[in-house]
Amino acid sequence: MHASFHPQDNALIRKLESVFALTDDERQALDDLPLQVMDIKADQDIVREGDRPSRSFTILSGFTSTYKVTGDGRRQIVAFGIAGDIPDLQSLHLKVLDISVATLTPCRVGFINHEDLWRLCMRHPRIAAAFWRETLIEGAIFREWVVNVGRRDAYTRMAHIFCELLVRLKAVGLAEGYACNLPMTQSEFADAIGTSTVHVNRVIQELRANGLIELSGDRLNVPDWEKLKHAGDFDPTYLHLENAQAAA
Amino acid sequence: MTLTLQPVRVATGSDEEGMLVFDEEQRLVAVLTHLGEQYDGLSGRWYLEAGFGRLGVQDHPTYADLDEAQAWIRQRLARER
Protein backbone atom coordinates (compact mmCIF):
# COMPACT_ATOMS: atom_id res chain seq x y z
CA MET A 1 0.00 0.00 0.00
CA HIS A 2 1.86 3.05 -1.25
CA ALA A 3 -0.96 5.20 0.00
CA SER A 4 0.09 4.54 3.57
CA PHE A 5 3.13 6.80 3.07
CA HIS A 6 0.97 9.76 2.20
CA PRO A 7 -2.38 9.02 3.77
CA GLN A 8 -3.48 12.63 3.48
CA ASP A 9 -2.99 13.37 -0.19
CA ASN A 10 -5.92 11.22 -1.24
CA ALA A 11 -7.93 14.43 -1.18
CA LEU A 12 -6.03 15.71 -4.22
CA ILE A 13 -6.56 12.45 -6.09
CA ARG A 14 -10.25 12.40 -5.17
CA LYS A 15 -10.57 15.97 -6.37
CA LEU A 16 -8.85 15.36 -9.72
CA GLU A 17 -10.84 12.17 -10.24
CA SER A 18 -14.05 14.12 -9.79
CA VAL A 19 -13.23 16.01 -13.01
CA PHE A 20 -10.85 13.67 -14.87
CA ALA A 21 -10.50 9.86 -15.20
CA LEU A 22 -7.05 8.86 -13.87
CA THR A 23 -5.23 5.57 -14.57
CA ASP A 24 -3.65 3.54 -11.76
CA ASP A 25 -0.20 4.79 -12.83
CA GLU A 26 -1.31 8.39 -12.69
CA ARG A 27 -2.95 7.90 -9.32
CA GLN A 28 0.31 6.37 -8.08
CA ALA A 29 2.38 9.25 -9.48
CA LEU A 30 0.14 11.73 -7.66
CA ASP A 31 0.37 9.67 -4.51
CA ASP A 32 4.18 9.71 -4.74
CA LEU A 33 4.32 13.48 -5.06
CA PRO A 34 6.45 14.82 -2.16
CA LEU A 35 4.36 16.98 0.15
CA GLN A 36 5.54 19.19 2.98
CA VAL A 37 2.58 18.87 5.32
CA MET A 38 1.77 21.79 7.58
CA ASP A 39 -1.03 22.48 10.05
CA ILE A 40 -2.23 26.07 9.97
CA LYS A 41 -4.58 27.80 12.42
CA ALA A 42 -7.82 29.44 11.32
CA ASP A 43 -7.76 32.95 9.80
CA GLN A 44 -4.13 32.91 8.68
CA ASP A 45 -2.83 33.88 5.26
CA ILE A 46 -1.20 30.94 3.49
CA VAL A 47 -0.03 33.01 0.52
CA ARG A 48 -0.41 36.72 -0.21
CA GLU A 49 -0.93 38.86 -3.29
CA GLY A 50 2.48 39.90 -4.61
CA ASP A 51 4.24 36.73 -3.38
CA ARG A 52 6.53 34.90 -5.82
CA PRO A 53 6.09 31.32 -4.58
CA SER A 54 8.34 28.43 -5.54
CA ARG A 55 5.67 25.97 -4.46
CA SER A 56 1.93 25.50 -4.51
CA PHE A 57 -0.24 23.92 -1.86
CA THR A 58 -3.09 21.47 -1.79
CA ILE A 59 -5.71 21.51 0.97
CA LEU A 60 -5.65 18.18 2.81
CA SER A 61 -8.40 19.19 5.22
CA GLY A 62 -10.24 22.36 6.15
CA PHE A 63 -11.59 25.35 4.24
CA THR A 64 -9.85 28.36 2.71
CA SER A 65 -10.88 31.61 1.09
CA THR A 66 -9.23 33.13 -1.95
CA TYR A 67 -9.56 36.90 -1.74
CA LYS A 68 -8.53 40.31 -3.00
CA VAL A 69 -8.59 43.62 -1.12
CA THR A 70 -9.63 47.01 -2.54
CA GLY A 71 -7.47 50.11 -2.20
CA ASP A 72 -9.48 51.21 0.85
CA GLY A 73 -9.13 47.86 2.55
CA ARG A 74 -12.36 46.05 1.76
CA ARG A 75 -12.16 42.33 1.15
CA GLN A 76 -13.87 40.42 -1.65
CA ILE A 77 -13.74 36.65 -1.35
CA VAL A 78 -13.56 35.28 -4.90
CA ALA A 79 -13.54 31.55 -4.10
CA PHE A 80 -13.84 29.03 -1.30
CA GLY A 81 -11.27 26.22 -1.21
CA ILE A 82 -12.09 22.72 0.03
CA ALA A 83 -10.06 19.54 0.54
CA GLY A 84 -8.29 18.48 -2.66
CA ASP A 85 -8.13 21.97 -4.17
CA ILE A 86 -4.85 23.65 -5.14
CA PRO A 87 -5.92 27.29 -4.73
CA ASP A 88 -2.60 28.73 -5.95
CA LEU A 89 -1.86 26.29 -8.77
CA GLN A 90 -1.63 29.33 -11.06
CA SER A 91 1.71 30.27 -9.47
CA LEU A 92 3.32 27.38 -11.37
CA HIS A 93 2.96 29.53 -14.51
CA LEU A 94 2.19 33.04 -13.27
CA LYS A 95 5.15 34.09 -11.19
CA VAL A 96 3.57 36.87 -9.14
CA LEU A 97 0.44 35.96 -7.18
CA ASP A 98 -2.57 38.18 -7.89
CA ILE A 99 -4.65 36.65 -5.09
CA SER A 100 -4.29 35.92 -1.39
CA VAL A 101 -5.43 32.67 0.21
CA ALA A 102 -6.32 32.40 3.90
CA THR A 103 -7.53 29.59 6.13
CA LEU A 104 -11.15 29.91 7.27
CA THR A 105 -10.81 26.94 9.64
CA PRO A 106 -7.74 25.13 10.96
CA CYS A 107 -6.27 23.53 7.82
CA ARG A 108 -3.81 20.83 7.02
CA VAL A 109 -2.10 21.73 3.77
CA GLY A 110 0.53 19.98 1.67
CA PHE A 111 3.09 22.17 -0.10
CA ILE A 112 4.33 20.85 -3.44
CA ASN A 113 7.54 22.28 -4.93
CA HIS A 114 7.00 23.68 -8.40
CA GLU A 115 9.97 21.60 -9.59
CA ASP A 116 8.16 18.44 -8.55
CA LEU A 117 4.94 19.59 -10.15
CA TRP A 118 6.79 20.34 -13.41
CA ARG A 119 8.44 16.93 -13.35
CA LEU A 120 5.09 15.25 -12.72
CA CYS A 121 3.50 17.08 -15.65
CA MET A 122 6.40 16.26 -18.00
CA ARG A 123 6.30 12.58 -17.13
CA HIS A 124 2.53 12.36 -17.16
CA PRO A 125 1.08 14.64 -19.82
CA ARG A 126 -2.41 13.43 -18.96
CA ILE A 127 -1.95 14.74 -15.40
CA ALA A 128 -0.93 18.08 -16.92
CA ALA A 129 -4.16 17.88 -18.92
CA ALA A 130 -6.08 17.14 -15.71
CA PHE A 131 -4.58 20.26 -14.07
CA TRP A 132 -5.46 22.24 -17.18
CA ARG A 133 -9.03 20.98 -17.03
CA GLU A 134 -9.17 21.79 -13.32
CA THR A 135 -7.92 25.34 -14.04
CA LEU A 136 -10.55 25.80 -16.76
CA ILE A 137 -13.25 24.70 -14.33
CA GLU A 138 -11.90 27.17 -11.78
CA GLY A 139 -12.38 29.83 -14.47
CA ALA A 140 -15.95 28.61 -15.05
CA ILE A 141 -16.65 28.96 -11.33
CA PHE A 142 -15.27 32.51 -11.33
CA ARG A 143 -17.57 33.37 -14.27
CA GLU A 144 -20.53 31.97 -12.36
CA TRP A 145 -19.55 34.10 -9.33
CA VAL A 146 -19.43 37.23 -11.49
CA VAL A 147 -23.01 36.51 -12.56
CA ASN A 148 -23.94 35.77 -8.97
CA VAL A 149 -22.50 38.97 -7.52
CA GLY A 150 -23.43 41.15 -10.48
CA ARG A 151 -26.95 40.08 -11.32
CA ARG A 152 -28.63 37.90 -8.71
CA ASP A 153 -30.37 39.24 -5.61
CA ALA A 154 -28.91 38.39 -2.21
CA TYR A 155 -31.42 35.59 -1.49
CA THR A 156 -30.62 33.85 -4.79
CA ARG A 157 -26.86 34.45 -4.37
CA MET A 158 -26.86 32.85 -0.95
CA ALA A 159 -28.90 29.83 -2.12
CA HIS A 160 -26.54 29.51 -5.10
CA ILE A 161 -23.45 29.45 -2.88
CA PHE A 162 -25.02 26.78 -0.65
CA CYS A 163 -25.80 24.65 -3.74
CA GLU A 164 -22.30 25.04 -5.18
CA LEU A 165 -20.52 24.20 -1.93
CA LEU A 166 -22.72 21.18 -1.31
CA VAL A 167 -22.12 19.78 -4.82
CA ARG A 168 -18.37 20.40 -4.64
CA LEU A 169 -18.10 18.78 -1.20
CA LYS A 170 -20.21 15.87 -2.40
CA ALA A 171 -17.88 15.35 -5.38
CA VAL A 172 -14.93 14.74 -3.05
CA GLY A 173 -16.86 12.62 -0.56
CA LEU A 174 -17.35 15.32 2.07
CA ALA A 175 -21.14 15.39 2.10
CA GLU A 176 -23.58 12.81 3.33
CA GLY A 177 -26.71 12.90 1.24
CA TYR A 178 -27.63 16.56 1.23
CA ALA A 179 -25.80 17.48 4.42
CA CYS A 180 -22.28 18.80 4.93
CA ASN A 181 -20.07 20.82 7.26
CA LEU A 182 -20.06 24.47 6.31
CA PRO A 183 -17.99 26.48 8.79
CA MET A 184 -18.09 29.88 7.05
CA THR A 185 -19.28 32.82 9.17
CA GLN A 186 -21.98 35.23 7.98
CA SER A 187 -19.33 37.89 7.55
CA GLU A 188 -17.31 35.58 5.28
CA PHE A 189 -20.42 34.79 3.24
CA ALA A 190 -21.06 38.55 3.02
CA ASP A 191 -17.59 39.10 1.56
CA ALA A 192 -18.18 36.27 -0.92
CA ILE A 193 -21.57 37.42 -2.20
CA GLY A 194 -20.76 41.13 -2.09
CA THR A 195 -23.29 42.20 0.50
CA SER A 196 -23.37 43.09 4.21
CA THR A 197 -23.41 40.70 7.18
CA VAL A 198 -26.84 42.08 8.11
CA HIS A 199 -28.19 41.18 4.69
CA VAL A 200 -26.66 37.69 4.82
CA ASN A 201 -28.27 37.22 8.23
CA ARG A 202 -31.67 38.19 6.79
CA VAL A 203 -31.51 35.99 3.69
CA ILE A 204 -30.31 33.01 5.73
CA GLN A 205 -33.29 33.51 8.09
CA GLU A 206 -35.55 33.67 5.06
CA LEU A 207 -34.06 30.51 3.52
CA ARG A 208 -34.59 28.73 6.84
CA ALA A 209 -38.12 30.06 7.25
CA ASN A 210 -38.95 28.83 3.75
CA GLY A 211 -37.67 25.35 4.64
CA LEU A 212 -34.84 25.40 2.09
CA ILE A 213 -31.98 24.92 4.52
CA GLU A 214 -31.45 23.73 8.07
CA LEU A 215 -28.42 25.04 9.94
CA SER A 216 -27.19 23.80 13.26
CA GLY A 217 -23.74 24.96 14.26
CA ASP A 218 -21.49 24.38 11.26
CA ARG A 219 -23.83 21.80 9.79
CA LEU A 220 -25.91 22.48 6.68
CA ASN A 221 -28.77 20.19 5.74
CA VAL A 222 -30.86 20.66 2.62
CA PRO A 223 -34.29 19.07 3.08
CA ASP A 224 -35.45 19.76 -0.49
CA TRP A 225 -32.60 19.88 -2.99
CA GLU A 226 -34.76 20.71 -6.03
CA LYS A 227 -36.31 23.63 -4.20
CA LEU A 228 -32.93 25.05 -3.13
CA LYS A 229 -31.55 24.64 -6.67
CA HIS A 230 -34.52 26.54 -8.00
CA ALA A 231 -34.17 29.29 -5.38
CA GLY A 232 -30.44 29.58 -6.16
CA ASP A 233 -30.89 29.61 -9.95
CA PHE A 234 -28.35 26.77 -9.79
CA ASP A 235 -27.38 24.58 -12.75
CA PRO A 236 -24.29 22.46 -11.92
CA THR A 237 -23.14 22.21 -15.56
CA TYR A 238 -20.40 24.82 -14.96
CA LEU A 239 -18.74 22.52 -12.41
CA HIS A 240 -18.11 19.97 -15.21
CA LEU A 241 -18.07 16.99 -12.87
CA GLU A 242 -17.17 13.59 -14.32
CA ASN A 243 -19.80 11.89 -12.28
CA ALA A 244 -23.03 13.69 -13.03
CA GLN A 245 -24.54 11.86 -10.05
CA ALA A 246 -22.56 14.09 -7.75
CA ALA A 247 -24.33 17.09 -9.21
CA ALA A 248 -27.80 15.56 -9.15
CA MET B 1 -24.58 70.15 8.56
CA THR B 2 -27.87 69.55 10.35
CA LEU B 3 -29.62 66.31 9.61
CA THR B 4 -33.28 65.63 10.35
CA LEU B 5 -34.52 62.24 11.46
CA GLN B 6 -38.01 60.88 10.94
CA PRO B 7 -39.09 57.54 12.47
CA VAL B 8 -40.34 54.94 10.03
CA ARG B 9 -41.07 51.22 9.97
CA VAL B 10 -38.92 49.29 7.50
CA ALA B 11 -40.27 46.16 5.80
CA THR B 12 -37.07 44.10 5.99
CA GLY B 13 -38.95 40.87 6.48
CA SER B 14 -39.25 41.28 10.23
CA ASP B 15 -40.75 44.78 10.30
CA GLU B 16 -38.01 46.78 12.00
CA GLU B 17 -37.94 50.30 13.41
CA GLY B 18 -35.94 52.76 11.40
CA MET B 19 -35.22 56.39 10.58
CA LEU B 20 -35.39 58.40 7.41
CA VAL B 21 -32.47 60.81 7.31
CA PHE B 22 -32.86 64.19 5.53
CA ASP B 23 -30.24 66.82 4.82
CA GLU B 24 -30.66 70.58 5.33
CA GLU B 25 -32.64 70.91 2.13
CA GLN B 26 -35.01 68.15 3.23
CA ARG B 27 -33.64 65.70 0.70
CA LEU B 28 -33.67 62.03 1.69
CA VAL B 29 -30.06 60.87 2.04
CA ALA B 30 -30.35 57.60 3.97
CA VAL B 31 -32.57 55.02 5.62
CA LEU B 32 -31.29 53.59 8.92
CA THR B 33 -32.65 50.42 10.52
CA HIS B 34 -32.44 49.59 14.23
CA LEU B 35 -31.34 45.94 14.23
CA GLY B 36 -33.55 43.60 16.26
CA GLU B 37 -32.63 40.59 18.38
CA GLN B 38 -31.94 38.16 15.56
CA TYR B 39 -28.54 39.56 14.51
CA ASP B 40 -26.24 38.03 17.12
CA GLY B 41 -23.33 40.42 17.62
CA LEU B 42 -25.00 43.24 15.69
CA SER B 43 -28.31 43.40 17.56
CA GLY B 44 -29.12 46.88 18.85
CA ARG B 45 -26.90 48.61 16.32
CA TRP B 46 -28.10 50.92 13.55
CA TYR B 47 -27.66 49.71 9.98
CA LEU B 48 -27.35 51.77 6.81
CA GLU B 49 -30.28 50.14 5.03
CA ALA B 50 -30.02 52.44 2.03
CA GLY B 51 -27.86 55.41 1.18
CA PHE B 52 -28.28 57.77 -1.72
CA GLY B 53 -25.70 59.69 -3.73
CA ARG B 54 -22.43 59.69 -1.81
CA LEU B 55 -23.91 57.36 0.77
CA GLY B 56 -24.45 54.64 -1.84
CA VAL B 57 -21.73 52.32 -0.57
CA GLN B 58 -21.38 48.62 -1.33
CA ASP B 59 -20.81 47.30 2.16
CA HIS B 60 -23.47 48.84 4.34
CA PRO B 61 -21.94 49.76 7.73
CA THR B 62 -23.53 49.51 11.18
CA TYR B 63 -23.23 52.09 13.98
CA ALA B 64 -23.38 51.88 17.77
CA ASP B 65 -26.03 54.62 17.97
CA LEU B 66 -27.73 57.38 15.98
CA ASP B 67 -25.01 59.91 16.87
CA GLU B 68 -22.35 57.72 15.34
CA ALA B 69 -24.53 57.13 12.27
CA GLN B 70 -25.09 60.86 11.77
CA ALA B 71 -21.39 61.63 12.24
CA TRP B 72 -20.57 59.10 9.51
CA ILE B 73 -23.23 60.52 7.20
CA ARG B 74 -22.01 64.11 7.71
CA GLN B 75 -18.42 63.15 7.10
CA ARG B 76 -19.34 61.20 4.00
CA LEU B 77 -21.46 64.02 2.56
CA ALA B 78 -18.65 66.54 3.15
CA ARG B 79 -16.07 64.38 1.42
CA GLU B 80 -14.82 65.15 -2.06
CA ARG B 81 -15.03 62.28 -4.53
Description:
The complex is a heterodimer of chains A (248) and B (81). With 248 residues, chain A is an alpha+beta fold. Chain A has two domains: 125 residues, Jelly Rolls; 96 residues, Winged helix-like DNA-binding domain superfamily/Winged helix DNA-binding domain (Arc Repressor Mutant, subunit A, Orthogonal Bundle). Helix content of chain A is 40%, strand content 20%. Chain A contains eight helices and eleven strands. In chain A, the strands form three sheets. Chain A has a four-stranded antiparallel beta sheet. In chain A, strand 10 and strand 11 form a beta hairpin. Chain A starts with 9 loop residues before the first helix and ends in a 17-residue tail after the last helix. Chain B has 81 residues and is an alpha+beta fold. Chain B is built from one helix and five strands, in the order E-E-E-E-E-H. In chain B, strands 1-2-3-4-5 form a five-stranded antiparallel beta sheet. In chain B, strand 1 and strand 2 form a beta hairpin. The longest helix of chain B has 13 residues. Chains A and B meet through helix 7 of A and loops of B. Chain A: InterPro entries: cNMP-bd_dom (IPR000595), cNMP-bd_dom_sf (IPR018490), HTH_CRP (IPR012318), RmlC-like_jellyroll (IPR014710), WH-like_DNA-bd_sf (IPR036388), WH_DNA-bd_sf (IPR036390). Chain A: This is CRP-like cAMP-binding protein.
